[in-house]
Amino acid sequence: MNINWQHDPVMNRLAEVLPVPTSYQQQDIYLALLSSIISQQLSTKVARVIRERFLSLFPDKYPQAELVLKLQIDDLKKVGLSTAKAGYVQNIARFHLDFPLSYEHLQPLPDEELIALFTQIKGVGIWTAQMVLMFPMNRPDVFPVDDLAIQQQMIKFYQIQESGKQLRERLFTIAENWRPHRTLACRYLWDAKDLVPLQS
């Protein structure tokens, strides 16, 4: 993807030194939401183990919503989920039965409506909704301003001094230069975690 980042020298240089992030293919949105809840506040390794244990509870390792709801909270806790996460997983399954969380149903909706829809589910916050938009749904212009890694990378590469409300305003201002490719810009920032700030 050849994008002109001329209005942002930092992003222009990151795009020069880093490989273009690969695009994500269409995935199972329902499963992606479940996986995101399971993975919250866990290391990648621990999250993978718990996710596999969770999936092993179901035939063909697929958590059909009806089967998720038949499980007791204690059944879900036995595979490593907290009480809260067990409840959130069942909230997603219940919602999926009422409003199918399929790519076909969701793809026509704009980003704002999708975020509003996902966050109706108790346990699914704005950040989780944004991750689903950015990855399994491959939406091109999402900016997760509350993602800690994004904040840290922007502070580092853009030499930001502000904090609190002023920091958020500065981050949004910078990200405006990335439209309509804010998802790609964020993926460059994540991929640049091992790079030192580039000198002008």
TrEMBL record:
This is DNA-3-methyladenine glycosylase II. GO terms for molecular function: alkylated DNA binding; DNA-3-methyladenine glycosylase activity; DNA-7-methylguanine glycosylase activity. The keyword Cell membrane does not apply. It catalyses: Hydrolysis of alkylated DNA, releasing 3-methyladenine, 3-methylguanine, 7-methylguanine and 7-methyladenine. SMART domains: ENDO3c. It holds the Pfam family HhH-GPD. It comes from Rhodocytophaga rosea. The keyword Membrane does not apply. Gene3D superfamilies: 1.10.1670.40, Hypothetical protein, domain 2 (1.10.340.30). Residues 38-194 form the HhH-GPD domain. InterPro entries: Alkylbase_DNA_Glycosylase/TA, Alkylbase_DNA_glycsylse_CS, DNA_glycosylase, HhH-GPD_domain. One of its GO terms (biological process) is DNA alkylation repair. Keywords: DNA damage, DNA repair. GO terms for cellular component: protein-DNA complex. Its EC number is 3.2.2.21. Belongs to the alkylbase DNA glycosidase AlkA family. Signal peptide: none annotated. CDD domains: ENDO3c (cd00056).
